[in-house]
Amino acid sequence: MKRYVIIGNGTAAVGCIEGIRAADREGAITVVSGEARPVYSRPLISYYLEGKTDLERMKYRSDTFYADNGCQVLYGRKATEIDPAQKTVQLDDGTALAYDKLCVAAGSRSFVPPFAGLDSVKDRFTFITLDDALSLEQALGTGRDKRVLIVGAGLIGLKCAEGIIDRAKSITVCDLADRVLSSILDAECAAVVQQHLEAHGIAFMLSDTAVKFDGGCAEMKSGRNVEFDVLVLAVGVRANTELVKAAGGSVNRGIIVNEKLETDLPDVYAAGDCTEGFDASLGDRRVLAILPNAYAQGQTAGTNMAGGDKVLDNAIPMNSIGFFRLHMMTAGSYTGEMTETRNGQTLRRFFVKDGLLKGFMLIGDTVRAGIYTSLIRDRIPLETLEFGPAAHEATSAMYTRETRRKKYGGVV
Amino acid sequence: MKRVYVNEEWCLGCHLCEYNCAFANSGLEDMVLALKGRKIFPRIHVEGDDRITFAVSCRHCTDPLCVKSCIAGAISKRDGVVKIDRTKCVGCLTCVLVCPYGALAPGEDGIMQKCELCLENSCGAPACVTGCPNKAIVYEERGGAE
Ligand SMILES: Cc1cc2nc3c(=O)[nH]c(=O)nc-3n(C[C@H](O)[C@H](O)[C@H](O)COP(=O)(O)OP(=O)(O)OC[C@H]3O[C@@H](n4cnc5c(N)ncnc54)[C@H](O)[C@@H]3O)c2cc1C
Ligand code: SF4
Ligand code: SF4
After folding, report:
1. Which ligand is nearest to the CA of A34?
2. Is A269 helix (H, G, I), strand (E, B) or coil?
């Protein structure tokens, strides 16, 4: 009987468990769960604060998930060391687990730059875990009287802002970048989104950030001072690579994995936010810190750990995110020639290189966008289509009749 | 497993399947009450132009990307049928971004919905199939992986 150990208990771990169990019902699976709770939908922590979900509905899997899959979960335990020679994982309670196959699914953590005076701020939070969200909820209370400063106008900072808008007196978001969502939007798309957020009461200080804190006051790079009651630090995340690095495995910004999700340590796999995998739209490696990728990588790793032979070679960055009912979707890489269509608040930009769709940004009009995503992932030559992506809203009418017969006429 | 397939050359583009779908999932017994004067949110969509038309609904994929990608764990596959737990969905549209077939769209309430083959509503078998005047939509077993 094989012994499987999984470090971490997020989406990548669930994918890994389901991947293993599709092939091996017998082996023993032990999950080392740093967080002292069953898996939950991490991206939903802002929706929780917004009141759009609750702790019950945030469960990513049913209450019987671990029992049904014969998993032993060590809640609140941390792995401290991997010994690839002995094939053991050391835990923080001094015990060790032996493995035949190991998956590191340790995710990422909030990166907090060394701000001067940060210790003087009483109510300061990061926004990654459910515990973070519950502590922030406590600090905001029910008086709607707290001024909140959020450092970081990325996805996490802005989702947090939306989530607490009805619980805060005011929200100011600052970022060193000159625009919101700078990792996924260009300047013009970002401007559309920023205006929309401002119309809903969020104030921005861009190209500016806090340099020093003194209790409830932030001194900004621009020299201005911002008074606040609650501080949220959402500057960025860092992959948890340390365990693999210390064991002698290759890491860069994430743990280096191949398309079977193997690290370069024997019998050690890695999946999810802690890895740096292959981005098919870029043709290079990159950390793809999104939930769909965490699941797909975990499942692929699990399948292979159980003796299967599965590769994941069509992962791309992609995000679907909405603020106050304005939806936007982005995917792939923004290289090559750009074509755009515009209509009021809807803006669509497509990036084409070497006859292939490489990336897109869609704001407002997101109907059937998965058809575009599949053109990128499956590297479909645009010349084989009846018309290009910008000609029309996304539709399978862009395929030839013959392609459509194949795609829609059988089991896929 | 049986799935819904559309024989494109037979599709008239009449949109009746969309109405039958919306009615089947309305939970109401009177079609006029359910549909008259209202914008409908069907789970099958007629696409195309004046030359060709065809209806599209969920393929109940062998390895469904929507299930793997839902940020709320709201989509699952059981006995071959891909379903959404609408109480868990938060309307982020990630599933729309990944479904290669354009088979998902939000309902009137912004919560996602998709074809679940009418197995749990009062029809018991796909209403789009039963109601198609030209028998362009069929519910049948076709070969391939499951
Ligand atoms: C606020 C927010 C909003 C988001 N929104 C979206 C979104 O809309 N769409 C999207 O696609 N993605 C979104 N994401 C990203 C998404 O949540 C992640 O990509 C996904 O959760 C990664 O899953 P994972 O299993 O790799 O890591 P995680 O979910 O981070 O799980 C890793 C787990 O490992 C544990 N761990 C770490 N080290 C150890 C150790 N040494 N021993 C034991 N346990 C350990 C950690 O405690 C953690 O619980 C969002 C993230 C946040 C924070
Ligand atoms: S919604 Fe799309 S991805 Fe999901 S099973 Fe249906 S066709 Fe496949
Ligand atoms: S819109 Fe709903 S069903 Fe679709 S991915 Fe988001 S939470 Fe899941």
Report:
1. 1
2. strand
Pairwise CB contact (< 8 Å): B99 & A292: no
Which domains are assigned to chain A?
A: 3-43+57-108+238-305 (3.50.50.60), 118-235 (3.50.50.60), 325-408 (3.30.390.30)
The candidate with the shortest Cα–Cα distance to A186, out of A394, A391, A376, A359, is A359
Cα dihedral: A10, A13, A19, A24 (round 10):
-130
Domain layout of chain B by residue ranges: 2-57+115-139
A67-110 pLDDT tens trace: 999 999 999 999 999 999 999 999 999 999 999 999 999 999 99
| Chain B neighbors of A401, CB-CB under 8 A | 8, 52
Instruction: For the domain covering B2-57+115-139, report its CATH number.
Output: 3.30.70.20
The reported pLDDT for the residue numbered A1 is 92
- Which member of A57, A292, A320 has the closest CB to residue B93? A320
Q: Could you report the per-residue pLDDT of A111-153, keeping only the tens digit for each?
A: 999 999 999 999 999 999 999 999 999 999 999 999 999 999 9
Number of neighbours of residue A61 by Cβ within 10 angstroms = 19
Angle ∠(B15,B20,B25) on CA atoms, nearest 5: 130
Integer distance in angstroms from the first to the last C-alpha of chain A? 34
pLDDT for the residue A84: 98
Kindly report the pTM of this predicted structure.
0.97
Contact B100 A327 (CB under 8 A): no
Q: Is the pLDDT confidence value at A223 over 90?
A: yes
Least Cα separation, residue A269 to chain B (angstroms): 19
Atom of ligand 2 nearest to the CA of B75: 4
Position B144 scores a pLDDT of 63
> Å from B127 to nearest chain A CA?
19
pLDDT over 90 percentage in chain B: 75
